[in-house]
Amino acid sequence: MNKVLIIIVAIIATSAGAVGFHLLTKKPLPEHALYYKQSRALTNFQLVDQAGNPFTNQKLRGKWSFVFFGYTSCPDVCPTTLQNLSFIYEQLQEIDENSQVLLVSVDPQRDSQSKLAQYIAYFNEDFLALRAEHDKLYPFARSLGLMYAISDTNNSESYQVDHSASLALINPDAKIAAIFKAEQALGEVPSIDSDKLLADYQKIVALY
What we know:
The protein is an alpha+beta fold. The protein has helices spanning 3-25, 77-87, 89-95, 113-123, 134-144, 194-207, and strands at residues 34-40, 46-49, 54-56, 64-70, 99-105, 128-131, 148-150, 161-163, 167-170, 176-180.
């Protein structure tokens, strides 16, 4: 084999090796979640947890936070979502030990601090339940991209609150990393597939 041919073969081999290494080291993107390659900033907020402690942006730093909007009188979506998160909580912790689950009440009129404490402990004692009045909740909801609306509460204690069934994932920089949207089959409660959530969460953490 002459020198020119040897050089050509060597160049091809080197190029192939570089392409192969790139393919092997390229991290896969999430397949199901709405993933923000450039994480979105979260506006400053002030909430209170079920123990009465202030909860601000600073409490998000250094943790991966799954944020769900709901309320204690919710008949279906909220208990289903929280139960599913409790079932996979250990797996979330295995992916990153600094994972936390936050329920944000969209019904401050009925969801007192003590009521939230009792409610969230039923699902998982490690979960946090947060509350604030609407003047602080609405801006927080808009910032996350998760909305809610309350029907007429006059002369009724049984009103319902329309709210998103999605989960927002906040990264350790206290920025929005992804949104996990609920799926709904005919006649069933909207829910987020746990296997899809775990698979995408692992990819998101690896991409961070």
